[in-house]
Specification:
361 residues; alpha/beta; QueA-like; Thrombin, subunit H; 2 domains; nine-stranded mixed beta sheet
Length: 361
């Protein structure tokens, strides 16, 4: 993978609609459960003596109650020749900064979404700020809090003044966004997929983390295709019942064509992650046909809406009442998810970005 440090800073046509609109309400019928602390992955699998592709893989089938316990390295054996894996090639930014208020108090500041080089959506973690307040950033940068982001309880619009291009600055001054369940500090490489190439995500599109060059080669040898799209993830945080904000995506022509060819041959499209589903559904017409497109998507996928663009979904295990669960319920149904999550908890699967994976077919 090309090093992020060698990639030029890129300003895509950022700029969602910032008009206040009614935020979608997440459905109350998604599975809810208690996540025990020992079900959380506290460090990368490499720190647990495993290769990336040795994490566990729970395979569940929507046409019945069957589920199978595997290792991720066996993924190509679960799929068939002619199937197509669609991956998100967005690369993770070191988007966490330590900011300071005028009186010196430290603030954890997460940069979520770049609208322009100087206008960002940011998340000051667990602190109250006032409009107009200016935070000091490393190396002489500043962040002025302009206004709360529409319909959000945690996000702000902020004007950043940085000593350099944003992505270059973050490579020197930032660190990967982490949450309290992660023990220790891990380098940015631990938060990248092997196929990442377009910098822009605040947090890793983690469903693809377990892929290795060996798994990709095995898939290719079995006649399984690979197609790319880009969706730059915003900060997810751990708050419940909050829908995702607008995110920038691009589905290139060659990916749209590959999907239509696979569908025409009666094979399956396997979306690697909820970010891929969001991009594909945003690029689909009324018949579910994916066309090349790019822009901002505010699509929230939840029952009773159906997913028309994917036949399988590879995903991590998500926190109780997370918006991702609403998307999974739209794909597989609540009863299916409840069986799968019950089995995962009983079998000791691990949650979060460094945890195990779930393939729904």
């Amino acid at each position: 993978m090309t090093s992020l440090a060698t990639m030029p800073a890129r300003v895509a046509p950022y700029g969602p609609c910032l008009e206040s609109a009614a935020a979608p309400v997440l459905p109350r019928d998604v599975p809810d459960f208690v996540l025990p602390p020992d079900s959380e992955a506290h460090e990368p699998p490499e720190a647990r003596g495993l290769r990336r592709d040795e994490v566990r893989l729970l395979v569940t089938y929507r046409d019945g109650r069957r589920l199978v316990h595997r290792r991720f390295a066996e993924l190509p054996d679960v799929l068939g020749p002619g199937d197509l894996l669609v991956v998100n090639d967005s690369a993770t930014l070191p988007a966490a900064l330590t900011a300071h208020r005028t009186q010196g108090a430290a603030v954890a500041l997460h940069l979520s979404t770049m609208l322009t080089a100087s206008l960002w959506i940011v998340e000051p973690r667990q602190t109250h700020l006032d409009a107009g307040e200016v935070l000091g950033l490393p190396a002489g940068g500043t962040a002025r809090m302009l206004a709360p982001y529409p319909e959000s309880q945690r996000l702000w619009l902020a004007q950043l003044r940085l000593p350099g291009r944003p992505f270059d600055y973050l490579m020197h001054a930032g660190r990967p966004i982490t949450y309290p369940y992660v023990r220790g500090a891990w380098p940015l490489a631990m938060y990248q997929t092997v196929y990442a190439r377009e910098p822009g995500s605040a947090e890793m599109p983690s469903a693809g983390r377990a892929f290795t060059e060996d798994v990709l080669a095995h898939a290719g040898a079995r006649g399984i295709g690979l197609a790319r799209l880009t969706l730059h993830t915003s900060v997810a945080s751990l708050e419940r019942d909050e829908p995702p904000i607008e995110e920038w995506y691009r589905v290139p022509e060659e990916t749209a064509a590959a999907i239509e060819a696979v569908r025409g041959d009666g094979r399956r499209v396997i979306a690697v992650g909820t970010t891929v589903v969001r991009a594909l559904e945003s690029a689909a017409d009324q018949r579910g046909r994916v066309t090349a497109s790019q822009g901002w998507t505010d699509l929230v996928i939840a029952p009773p809406r159906e997913i028309r663009t994917a036949d399988g979904l590879l995903t991590g295990f998500h926190e109780p009442r997370a918006s991702h669960l609403a998307m999974l319920a739209a794909f597989a149904g609540r009863a299916h998810l409840e069986r799968a999550y019950r089995a995962a908890l009983e079998a000791g699967y691990l949650w979060h970005e460094f945890g195990d994976l779930h393939l729904i077919l």
